[in-house]
Structure formats: C-alpha cells, structure tokens
Amino acid sequence: MSPPEDATRAAYDAVAQEYEKQLADELDGKPLDRALLVAFAEMVGPGIVADVGCGPGHVAAQLRALGRELIGVDLSPSMIEIARERYPAIDFQVGSMLDLPAGDGAWAGAVLMYSIIHLPGSQRGPAYRELARVIRPGGLVLLAFHVSDASHAPGDVSTIDEFMGQPVELTHHYLGPDEVAAGLTDAGFVEVARLEREPHPGAEYPSRRCYLIVSR
CATH top-level class for 3-215? Predict the structure, then answer.
C-alpha cells in the first residue's frame, strides 16, 4: 500500500465510529444523490455493482434496495467492520482502488462517491485503469467529487490534521470535471453524463460537486 493510502486508511480508521454517526444517513438529506443512484441502478446492466470507497456502506445499501447485486470495497478495515455489521447481506471487503479485489471484467458497474479525492495526481490514472480492468465492456461507473469551495479552486489540495475530533493526516484534492473526464477517457471510458451542483445547505460540506457517469 502506498504512503498516501496508508495515511488515508489511518485517518478513516480513526474516525470510523464518528463518521458512521454523522454521515451514515446522509442520503436522507440529498435528494439529487438519491435520484442519481436510482438512474444509475436502472442504467447499469445485470451483474455485480461495486461501491468503491464504501465507508459505512450506506450507498451500497441504497443500491441493493434498488435491486442491484452489491459488493463494497474500502481501504479502512474499521469502516468495513461497521458496514458488515450494518448490512450483513452485502459482501464488504478491504481493498485499494489501485488493486481492486476482482477479476478482469468482473463488475457490471461501480460507484465511487468522493473516493478519488484522496488520490494524488500520480495515482489517479492508475486507479482509472484499474477500474477499467474490472468493469466489463459496456459497464457503467458513477463518480462524485468536490470541485471547489469558498477557499479552494479546482486543482487545489487541502491537508487537514484534525477530522471529526481525531488527529489525522488527511489530504483531499479539488478536481476539475474536464480533468477527471479526460483521465477516464484515457483509461478507456466514454462520458455518458455530467452534472454539477451547489451544496445542499446544512446537509453536507459546502462545496461545489460534480457527478460523472462513464461507460467502459
């Protein structure tokens, strides 16, 4: 595991319990996210859908309730432990975006909700190529990421030393939609849809967000 992944894993292990308390029900206040997951569930073909960077498993559970077969993957063993306890019917595994626990073309689709924001630029291309390896031809991927906020523009990097009351070393990147789309195209994906939105007041961190759906 790379040093950036080590730091990300340690940070989310440290905050896992509090993260569950604060964010495991976050979709209740995000109608657009729920609508996008419904659309994705209808668009993706039959087969396994992976929630990559699944955290406590709430997005995976939402997709399973929509009739999809789910697997959840996360760097953090503590997050995976929580997800398994909350949703025992779903297969959750510890794993990295750079080495996904699946064979070539094994997944019909994947969702990555704010997962890629912790990858440095040097790792995003390899992560996209690894994603292309495990998604079958014609499969779909939905990605969400932070674009900007009041203090950061696309391309900026933020490193924090405290998160949810715990000392951490956690870096996240604000990403331009065109840059992410170009990286996915280079990895073998085709853009299907793009949406940008402002934050839901009081329901989430106040950043502008982008959602991309791409096809393998």
Answer: alpha beta
